């Protein structure tokens, strides 16, 4: 069974901006542009019945689209970095969507995600890279920012068991409602997909 996770997609123009951050760390394995995403909830390996139940519950989520901003870069693993990422500015809408997905996963019996949600786009995986090279890389690119974009849907992705970084397959698409009268609570909304 493939590994499942929910994510927000990165539009092509933003992905191309992120791709300019590739290179500069000897030994890094850079993520392919088409595999950039913002993970909302890692689900893991589940049986077909559980996967169907997850899709059914995710399909009932009714939330509005929201803006996403990607700013700055960083790394995971302070003394021995294992990945570099571009930061995603947290928003209440993104946190609410992620929280609802987390509650759905727990209700159907999946263990709680032990990690605190920190939205980011993984750019590269580091295995035997020198700390000095990573520090130098981050120091020269810390002021990165991309054009903000609208998340009009979230997706359920699958990956084959590998060392991470794709290729990913879009299993299901879940549209978010378009905001028409922005600034007016309860304005007219309808579902749309713009990717």
Question: What features would you describe in this structure?
Answer:
It is a single chain. This protein has 195 residues and is an alpha+beta fold. It contains four helices and twelve strands. The protein has helices at 12-19, 48-58, 92-107, 131-141, and strands spanning 3-9, 29-30, 37-45, 66-68, 70-76, 83-88, 120-125, 149-151, 153-159, 168-175, 177-179, 189-191. The strands form four sheets. Strands 3-1-9-10 form a four-stranded antiparallel β-sheet, covered by helices on one side. The longest helix has 16 residues, at 92-107. Mean pLDDT is 89; it is low at 184-195.
Choose one word for the global shape: globular
Number of helices: 4
* Mean pLDDT across all amino acids: 89
Specify the structural class: alpha+beta
Kindly provide the radius of gyration, computed on alpha-carbon positions and rounded to a whole number of angstroms: 17 Å
Can you write the helix and strand succession as a string? EHEEHEEEHEHEEEEE
Low-confidence runs of at least 5 consecutive residues: 184-195
Largest sheet: 4 strands, antiparallel
Summarize the amount of helix as a percent range.
10-25%
- Biggest sheet, strands in spatial order? 3-1-9-10
End-to-end span in angstroms? 27 Å
Topology (elements, then pairings):
Blueprint lengths: L2 E7 L2 H8 L9 E2 L6 E9 L2 H11 L7 E3 L1 E7 L6 E6 L3 H16 L12 E6 L5 H11 L7 E3 L1 E7 L8 E8 L1 E3 L9 E3 L4
Antiparallel strand pairs: 1-3, 1-9, 2-7, 4-8, 5-6, 6-7, 9-10, 11-12
């Amino acid at each position: 069974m493939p590994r499942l996770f929910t994510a927000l997609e990165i539009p092509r123009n933003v992905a191309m901006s992120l791709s300019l951050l590739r290179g500069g760390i000897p030994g890094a394995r850079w993520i392919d542009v088409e595999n950039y995403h913002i993970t909302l909830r890692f689900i893991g390996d589940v049986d077909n019945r559980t996967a169907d139940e997850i899709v059914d519950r995710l399909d009932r989520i009714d939330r509005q689209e929201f803006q996403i901003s990607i700013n700055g870069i960083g790394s995971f693993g302070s003394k021995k970095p294992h990945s570099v990422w571009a930061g995603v500015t947290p928003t209440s809408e993104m946190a609410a969507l992620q929280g609802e997905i987390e509650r759905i996963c727990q209700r159907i019996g999946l263990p709680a995600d032990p990690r605190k949600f920190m939205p980011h786009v993984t750019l590269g995986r580091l295995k035997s890279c020198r700390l000095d090279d990573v520090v130098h890389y981050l120091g020269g690119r810390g002021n990165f920012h991309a054009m903000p974009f609208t998340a009009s849907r979230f997706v359920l992705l699958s990956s084959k068991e590998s060392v991470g970084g794709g290729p990913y397959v879009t299993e299901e698409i879940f549209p978010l409602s378009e905001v028409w009268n922005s600034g007016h609570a309860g304005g007219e909304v309808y579902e749309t997909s713009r990717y």
